[in-house]
Amino acid sequence: MESKSVCINCGTKEHFAKGLCRKCYQNTRNKKIFEERPDIKAKSFENWHNKCICKILKKHHEQLKDDPEHLSTEFLQKIIGIKCKR
After folding, report:
1. Three-point CA angle 40, 12, 17, nearest 5°
2. Which neighbouring-strand residues pair with 20?
3. How far, rounded to the nearest angstrom, does the alpha carbon of residue 65 sit from its chain's CA centroid?
4. pLDDT in tens, 7-31
């Protein structure tokens, strides 16, 4: 009878380190880094937030490109204060 290690956090039948599976170990590690360095957490959130805004602006541009009265993507970026990659 073979016993398999399970993650003490989620119960997954995978053991990576310190009794945790790879996913839980990484989440714990990230949480510790974010607690020790709040600047990293803020930058990570800012990057995620900007990506979401850029996706919305891209959809806006695609859906309204034939509407002569729509606000330009460049104008919206200036108002919001971010620069999206094309």
Report:
1. 55
2. 17
3. 28
4. 777 877 776 777 778 888 888 777 7
**How many other CB atoms sit within 10 Å of the CB of residue 20?**
22
Q: What is the 3-state secondary structure (H, E, C) of the chain?
A: CCCCCCCCCCCCCCCCECCECHHHHHHHHHHHHHHHCHHHHHHHHHHHHHHHHHHHHHHHHHHHCCCCCCCCHHHHHHHHCCCCCC
- The predicted model scores a pTM of 0.51
In this structure, which long-range contacts are made by residues 25-31, counting pairs with CB atoms below 8 Å and at least 24 apart in sequence?
A: none
- Give per-residue pLDDT as tens, 28-77: 777 776 677 777 667 777 888 888 889 999 998 899 989 988 888 889 98
* Residue 21 CB burial class (10 angstroms; 0-12, 13-18, ≥19): buried
